[in-house]
Amino acid sequence: MKTLIKVKPKDYKVGDTVKIDFMAMHPMESGMRKDKDTGKIVPAHYINEVNFLFNDKVLTKMVTWESLSVNPVLSISMKVSAAGTLKVLAKDNKGESVETSAAITPKG
Amino acid sequence: MERRSFLKGFGAVSACAALVPSIVSAADEAKKVSGPNEMSVESALAAITGGKSVTPSSKVSLSAPEIAENGAVVPVKVSVESPMSANDYVKAIHIFATKNNNVRCANVYLTPANGEATFATRIKLGTTQDVLAVAEMSNGTFLSAKQNVKVTIGGCG
What we know:
The structure holds two protein chains of two kinds. Chain A is an all-beta fold. Chain A has no helices and seven strands.
């Protein structure tokens, strides 16, 4: 699972509210689709848990289901209180987990 | 002679046609039972609200396209009016696709540190249906917003 965190806008100060995009490369199989070649149902494979942590404190927790699109993008807001690290932990229903982090560096 | 054989064949075909519907419905029933995470809107809502009433509110704004050509990628954005202070904030935003096999799309649990109660993502829609957003406030009330999305090509399968 490849992941990416984007913080928008690029320049922000302490006290600003920024938008955080978390992107993951994931097939998000619903478990309903049939494989065109073999005719067998492709088993469900989707991200079911995403946790956003800022300086190891919980910012946002998400429980997600197979109805999210392929390569999902999850965007939330965050009020910048200090400089620090934003960590995102994502898990899928097959037990694969990934940890991504981004530095939050407010200017001024 | 030709006419006779044609009629015979026709009879056989119609007999088959009479059998087919029952087979299909049986298969549908089997699929319904064995479908992963199969859930209806009523039970999904009850699991979240615990029986409390959900009131439609203008405080919750849900933006989704009115017509989605491709049901596999439907952008959905929810924002809830709230000061997001320590004692008055949006606890959670839940998104449901009311006619998908599993209506649950995402349950997002927010904290006051979010600053604004917004959530955006892209979801899959099987057919034309209502997208429902439910916001759980810190005082225990549930507010909702709904929008119908017309889907030209389904995105579930």
